[in-house]
Specification:
Bound molecules: thymidine-5'-triphosphate, magnesium ion
Largest sheet: 5 strands, mixed
Strand order of the largest sheet: 5-6-1-7-8
Distance between the termini: 38 Å
Number of domains: 3
Radius of gyration: 26 Å
Oligomer: single chain
CATH superfamily of the largest domain: Reverse transcriptase/Diguanylate cyclase domain
Length: 412
């Protein structure tokens, strides 16, 4: 049994982000130096470089450099104007990947975020394992690379993500922070700008380890109470700051596109039941419940409808969601058409404390315990292990064979 540390924080930073997206969109750019920046006019532009890919960085080109300077260093590079909408869209896609692993996401910029995956370890493996999964999802789904730092604090995770770019994964185990920090140049310390660096130089501090060996008093006298205390703590790897999520999720749903359009409504209903189970389990795992149930149905030919119903109180169990979802399906359906996609989403989400047990018990006192038992089995053996025979159409017991892996439709 691996012992897990107190916290598992990831810092994820995309590699050469704008340039990497441009390379992805245009394979002809691959291997060439690429500079994304404003006004790339024949070496005379007044704008600056937003970013350069790693091939262009070999010419010394980097963010914030005047574009004219970049041109002087490498006229043969491909110069591209930023396409912000495209980058924002990719950023949302990457965020969707994060959301599969945790709700605690603190975006820092368009290509960078902190994730607190402490509670996710029970389901997805330890911090480094989750980091690997995220990197591999970003690679396969977005065809991009990210670098990740994994540690027990934001400060260490942030430094770690930068040390092995591109496509890096640097893990700093709890208890080994000093070993990691000590040899790093003092400039890596958060908040150490040019003025502070000059003062550190006078204190003969070249590395973070040098600063860590100073008494707190010395740092406070040099930098003032607040900065001095901060440098004292950070240099010793002490950073308790929480990951502050930017928003609470407002809806949670899953949908499934059939490999081939399906005529048999029993198959459609079984799939919808399976999706409902997954959504309900996911809500309970996140201690959430939703008040509005939305059904999505797409027929052959792509015509799509959504139907929703708002209940009197938030729910998060299959027993409460399924009858409504099925009724919405039956009311909306046009039986002569084959079905291409079906999905169910809960919105109007609210956090529920575990003690708020009517949401788990749902009147019967039994449902909550059944739901928890199903969750436990599903976590141990994969969802689909436990099906609820009584809920399936015509009492059928098997899960659908051709159930494509549903994806979470995250978002607001
Ligand atoms: P960064 O993560 O700093 O840089 P990067 O992703 O291009 O490269 P790295 O592999 O070193 O992480 O910034 C993310 C994006 O933000 C970058 O692709 C472009 C944009 N950006 C600017 O527009 N101007 C700037 O000065 C910086 C630093 C970034
Ligand atoms: Mg980046």
């Amino acid at each position: 049994m691996v012992t897990l540390g107190k916290r598992a924080i990831l810092h994820v930073d995309m590699d050469a982000f704008y340039a990497a997206v441009e390379e992805r969109e245009n394979p002809a750019l691959r291997g060439k130096p690429v500079v994304v920046g404003s006004e790339p006019k024949e070496g005379r532009g007044r704008g600056v470089v937003a970013t350069a890919n790693y091939a262009a960085r070999r010419y010394g080109i980097g963010s914030a450099m005047p574009i004219s300077e970049a041109w002087r260093r490498c006229p043969s590079a491909v110069y591209i104007r930023p396409r912000m909408r495209l980058y924002a869209e990719v950023s949302r896609g990457v965020r969707d990947i994060f959301e599969r692993f945790t709700d605690l996401i603190e975006p820092i910029s368009i290509d960078e975020a902190f994730l607190d995956v402490t509670a996710s370890r029970r389901l997805y493996g330890d911090g480094p394992e989750i980091a690997k999964r995220i990197k591999s999802a970003i690679r396969s789904e977005e065809r991009l690379t990210a670098s990740i730092g994994c540690a027990a604090s934001k400060f260490i995770a942030k430094i770690a993500s930068d040390l092995d770019k591109p496509d890096g994964l640097v893990v700093v185990e709890e208890g080994r922070e000093a070993e990691f920090l000590d040899p790093l140049p003092i400039g890596r310390l958060w908040g150490a700008g040019p003025k502070a660096l000059e003062r550190f130089r006078r204190l003969r501090c070249a590395t973070i380890g040098d600063a860590a060996s100073l008494e707190r008093d010395v740092l406070v006298r040099t930098f003032g109470e607040s900065m001095g205390d901060r440098f004292h703590r950070l240099s010793r790897g002490l950073d308790e700051r929480p990951v502050v999520p930017d928003h609470v999720r407002k809806s949670l749903g899953k949908e499934s596109t059939f490999g081939e359009d399906v005529a048999d409504r029993k198959v459609v209903e079984r799939t919808l039941l399976d999706l409902t189970e997954k959504v309900a389990a996911s809500l309970r795992r996140k201690h959430m419940a939703g008040v509005t149930i939305t059904l999505k149905l797409r027929w052959e030919g792509f015509e799509t409808v959504t139907r929703r119903r708002t209940l009197k109180e938030p729910v998060n169990t299959t027993e409460r969601i399924w009858p409504v979802a099925r009724e919405l399906l039956r009311a909306a359906d046009r039986p002569r058409l084959k079905v291409r996609l079906v999905g169910v989403t809960l919105s109007g989400l609210d956090r529920v404390e575990s003690g708020q047990s009517d949401l788990f018990r749902e009147g019967s006192n039994v449902d909550g315990r059944v739901a928890e038992a199903v969750d436990t089995l599903a976590e141990r053996f994969g969802s689909g292990t436990v099906t609820r025979a009584a809920l399936l159409p015509d009492g059928e017991k098997d899960a659908p064979d051709d159930d494509p892996e549903p994806h979470e439709s995250g978002g607001n």
